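User: Quick one: structure for sequence A, then sequence B.

Assistant: Sequence A:
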Amino acid sequence: MAWNRLSTKLLAGAIGLVLLSALAVASLATFRYSQSLMESLRTQSSLLGHSLAVEATNLVLTNDLVGLQKMIQHQKAIHDDLAYLFVVKDGRILVHSFDGGFPTNLLHVHRAQEPQTFGVQEVISETGERYLDIAVPIFEGRAGCLRLGFTENAYQSQMRRLWVEIGGITATIVLMAVGAISLVVKKLLSPLDRLTHAVERASQGELTVRVDDSGDREVAVLAQSFNLMMERLEDYTHRLQQQAQDLAAAQQRTRAFCEIVQNIGALHSLQDIGAFLISRFRDVLHFDKAALLLFDDARETLIILDDKRLKTTGNPRALGWFAHLLDTVKTVGVRSALHPAPPEPVLDALWSERVACALVPISTEAPSAFGTLIIRCDDRCHCPSEALELIGAIIREASGVLQRAVAHEMEMRSMQRLSNPRATFCGMVGRDPAMQNVFRLVENVAASDATVLIQGESGTGKELVAQAIHQLSPRSSFPFVIINCAAYPPSLIESELFGHEKGAFTGADRARQGRFEQAEGGTVFLDEVGDIPAPVQVKLLRVLQTHQFERVGGEKTLQANVRVVAATHRHLLKEVKNGRFREDLFYRLNVIPITLPPLRSRPMDIPLLATHFLQKYQQIYRKDVKDFHRDVLRLFVEYSWPGNVRELENTVEHAVLMSKNDTIHVWDLPSAFRSTSTVAAPEGLATMEERERQAIAEALESAHGNKKKAAQKLGISRSALYNKMKKYGFMS
């Protein structure tokens, strides 16, 4: 039992109070009883003394000391509490009852009083016994004084019995009181004890502790108050913990924000920036997959970045899909799935499952976004709004760096293409800057439905350019219909283009679809469009303007859902000036002009083309022809090629068929080619330096003196152009 507990103190206090009360009552009772006993003893002894004094009067007056002695002995024998008797007269002891001699000290007990007065005093013997000494005058003191000594042993014995009885009763009362008090204290303090234990548990951090509120009203109110206080404390602690967690998360996000913004500026490569951002965003959201999709400045290239690779695509479907996505992404948010689904060039860089995605737009001060961050939200990542807002803030700070990195990446790729141009493109071959410009122009215009006019000499590959535009366009899955306008007589060209109804003219025994109807949804290639007769030019102009036409002999207006690509070897502007071609039709066709250079203007491509055709025909004819003799290549470069690429292809095919070993020699070439090449005077040919100087002059003239554009047309860097201009005297 702990002494510092309230129940122990209350129990000890109650017991002490009971004991003090019992002792006080016992003391008062014993005091009263002692007084009554003493009064009774005094009274009895006084009565006995007076009786004996009367009896002793005659014996003293007659001087019968023997009789007086016998009386004293007899009285002592019959009274147990009578300890001694003696008679004193005039200071002399007449008789006494002491066996061992009279104690002289007793004479002085009543010396101060008068002999004729009655006196009572308590005396103590040398052995410590207490006596009640009574002095009774005999015959009013004239016959002396009778002294009686009554022992107090009986009195003390009765007092001890009284104390024993009182002690027993008190102990019984105390035990009963202790039991009763214990029950009362337990009943009164058990709720307080439960509350104390609850407070101790709460002080150790156990906030879910509660106290039973059943019982008396006061106890119930106290327990309810404690429970309410604990509920509030638990709620407050929970909110504090949540606020601490939110504060820690906010501090972590702030540190991540500052670190990302600080470190991203030190990165130069777009791929490094993308990988760094995605890896840091993964620390915030714990996602599995994410990708950055970015447009270049011209929105002609889509850049797809994840944490491992960088991919670009110019596919029109991919560009159109991403442009639509950017129009719908205005703020940070989560979508159940990407709708519409991304096309193949983008899908393989993202994910095929239809899962929820978080979209974060990437924009600068421009009115529209140029990219977006796509995060896959799955079971591991639920994309909370606070984390997405943080990522959005980081993206906003990093958008300028991303835009500059995109521009730098596209510039580096452009320089790389110029320094190491692709040799083949959609079946076309050429590293010459003029052909590289044609390749880039085809890529740029393919995604639109704009009419394209391809001009160039015969055999330069106009049909291949038209096929490339169709293959790279959104209409690539629909027909590509070729119409050679120079191959039909003027009377049949209209029927060939637009079709005819049955009976429209002699021989029209059934209705027939025209080429525009056959190419529904696809591309119509009008080859040699400069040879179309004037009446048909009017109807073709109407198709280009309204996309409507009627069959020959028909009245129903049909829709022309086609893209028109035209080609001609004629100089149409001169034809317009000479009145042989409609001016309005020319401008309708010349929306996107593409001019193919003749083969003689790109001599560097001649060996490349020759090798390409050599590989093609050695597979077709199964001949083990591996290379050209150097004299053959020299003749190829020096030849003017009036028939352009088509003539070169026919020449290589002839040489492969004529070759007898694994190398093509001069004698394997066509006889007309050999005779032309031998007649040509070597000194009449322009040198490579002269051709280079002429190419630079033409590039500067077409670029109106803009050296950057001229360098791009030539496929060289600006510094290389400056060096060559100094070399050939273009700069003073």
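Sequence B:
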Amino acid sequence: MNSSQSTTGSKKRKIKAESDTTVTNKNESSDSEDDIALSKRRKITPLKKEDVKKPLKKTTKVKKEEDEKPATKRKKAPTKVKEEKVSKRKKKVEEEVEVFRWWDNEKEDDSVKWTTLEHQGPYFPPEYVSHGIKMKYKGEPIDLVPECEEIANFFAQVIGTDWAENPTFRKNFFKDFQKVLKKKMPGCPIKKFEDCDFTPIAEYFAEQKEKRKAMTKEEKEVIKKEKQEIENKYGWALLDGRKEKVGNFRIEPPGLFRGRGEHPKTGTLKRRVYPENVTINIGENATVPPPPEGHKWGKIIHDNTVTWLAMWKENVNDSFKYVWLAAGSSLKGQSDFKKFEKARELKKHIDQIRAEYTLELKDKLMATRQRATALYFIDKLALRAGNEKGDDLADTVGCCSLRYEHVTLEPPNRVIFDFLGKDSIRYYNEVEVSKQVYKNIEIFKRPPKKEGDMLFDRLNTTILNKHLQKSMKGLTAKVFRTFNASYTFQEELKKTVKNSTINEKLLAYNRANRQVAILCNHQRSVSKNHSDQLKRIQDKILTSKYQRYLVSKEMLEIDPTLKKKKPEYGRLSRGITKEFIKNYEEKELEKKKAKLEKDNEKRKAEGKELLTLKDLEEKKRQPTLERLEKQYDTLSKRIKAQQLLLIDKDENKTTALGTSKINYIDPRISAAWCYKYNVPIEKIFNKSLRNKFKWAVEVDENFVF
């Protein structure tokens, strides 16, 4: 392994892979027991000889209140609870699955991916069973055979969503629906979409949804158990004798294709996949998994130079689908590691490459000048290289496939890009470029070129990548995107303030991530409930401020002189209206009544006298000034954290942070940042990402991309 990876040294962190059966579903943003447990496990891992030169720097400081008190003052009950927690934590660590540490033994030759491979093949969705609910045509119920009824179901299930109102979606759906109707029901009267009424079926599915919500705990447990049995059978493979998790082992059921953006095939029928359509890849000496009864596999191969377990071709875009090992598997981890190491390697060559293409911007040969200009855009703007698309696919382009109309010039040196990128997401960007690049674009757009003509008519991705190979082995245009994303992220993280709070550091982290998302054009539309989310956070802020106001009033009752020192005490914050106070008091009263009812049920069972609200108030302990001061400080910190969350939510409304964090940013940068700024890694990597990037968390806090 490359020495620059820094997997040894005084700051080396080690963690074990997390077992699905041992990690509880806790809020990632809270300081949960799991958060503390993982931080402690990372610190107490035994060191190698070379690691003992310096003591490990503590990254998480955890000290419980009872530890600060003398042993004689400890109460028995809390001690017992603490011992139980420690015991559970210890048991949890012992139960965790030992990880295959492939990063300690990297192979020189990676052409052979595995020696032995065993698995159970993919899991097929169950065959369709008719429910008998009839759609209507021109107001009359229509009897449909099961094959046609199933397709009618697909549209009924999107009623009430934007898809149902999308003209392209409706057109493609009805076109495929009619094809099946003509084949299975030749005399069917359904001819026009406008005369179709899928409401009865939609209402049926709405009822089924409500029934699922109303299921008893026992019924839910039965379903959960069935899912777990499927997971246990199909969700694991044996790779070179090691148990590895399979990722997408379920074959997608039939339905209507959605697509992203303005995809021309949205609404097209996705046909059911049968075993006859599937190719199985398995070890030569392994037992071939039996296909579902009455079927046989399309093909069985034993190719150890690829990492997929099964493959088939889907009908909508005529593309191949694969079953892979999970994101946290050794093969996927090695692939990710090599991708980021290649991007780090580019850092050594980037200055030379930039110097070369800058000179070539003025080259006399037009093909060379086009190549240099395209490379300038790929490097500076993180544009995708772009490949030719067929007429049946969405009109998405990249740098090499830009057309005349996608680029507009605005003197003296501004270039405006406007085109559909990957997944039909619009790329719009106005940038100032060098005078030579601006001049080149003017030349590339000269008559007789017109709309529809290629901007770079003497360039494609094959030519570009072949040229890049001369500068660095394995270099492609795609590597620039990973390099620029990771490097930008690392530079942005330098703005983190060392002595700030955890929430302020996380805001700095997300802002750095957002800059990468903007660079890579990772956009998303504002969610429908975005304003509701902001409103809920704002309500929490006002509630905390009002609670702080009440606490300050109590403090002034005990010591009125505090008003001179702290003028804000006893003063209502802006936004707290009479209506807000009334609603708050009503909610608090409801909480007290609920608590009283619960307490009285217990007292009634014990034969004790029932209490009233007045009894609860009299029973309430009068707080000390010291205790109130602590409450005031706690509420102030909570308000600040909520305000930061509000800013973060609002700033992130149109950017998709996950794509860049998972695919384009070297995870070692994030891990090193966590250790350097004492941020628990659980705050930025959830359980899934910690499992995916377990190779990356063993990094020195001074790691540099």
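The first strand starts at residue 117 and ends at 118. Confidence is low (pLDDT under 50) at residues 1-83, 85-97.

User: Thanks, that's what I needed.
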